[in-house]
Design a protein that fits this description.
The chain has twelve helices and no strands. The chain is mainly α and about 260 residues long. The longest helix has 27 residues. It holds the Pfam family Mem_trans.
Length: about 260
Amino acid sequence: MTYVIIHALAPIFVIMLLGFWAGKAGMVDNKNVSLLNIFVMDFALPATLFSATVQTPWAGIVAQSPLVLVLTGAMWITYAAIYFLATSVFKRTPQDAAVLTLTVALPNYAALGLPILGSVLGEGASTSLSVAVSIACGSVLMTPFCLLILEREKARAAGENSGSTLAMLPVLMWRSVKKPIVWGPLLGVVLSAIGIKMPEMLLASIKPLGLAATAAALFLTGVILSARKLQLNALIATSTIVKLLVQPFIAWALVMLLGLH
């Protein structure tokens, strides 16, 4: 079993290390990764996720409902806990706490979802569908609320009525939905729901983009990491423990509680 896990995860870390090395060596500008990010997040991953969702029968998509409950619950419980610790215990500003908690509570589904699930569970439409559902949950149900806190604090600093920022929530959610990595798989879900089949020619045409998604996402992650400086303090240590140990336990507990095992 240990060999199977190592064999599955080794390519992930190797490609990330290659990206990290490329960034550190100056082969890739790790301060400006916008072009690579656009390719991964606006083309490669959306193509993969659209192809997976549009080819999945509606019954298979509905069957992902328990996954939505578990992911949403695990993310929100983690978000609430870290936000409380950051603001009450570590005395961080609401703005800093909002960004930190989003980083901790929202896993990197986009860049690492497909590589990890594909390596462990095998590549296929069901794997891509699970990643698409995960990205939608995070982008639509988590990110807008982080932005809402930032807008609220900005309004307070300007002496405006912060209560009015609640009216911005639909706008912020729509802003998230408009991203290709979100509306791509959502479009596939809609087409699947109404029974529209995509031509094989179209699916074959976007398949190469999907094949490039996994490696490009991992390489991009490595490049981004190469531009960061390692810092360690009590808040970061606490956040890391929550991210790596507590949040998976919360997800497991929700699975057991809902009888999904």
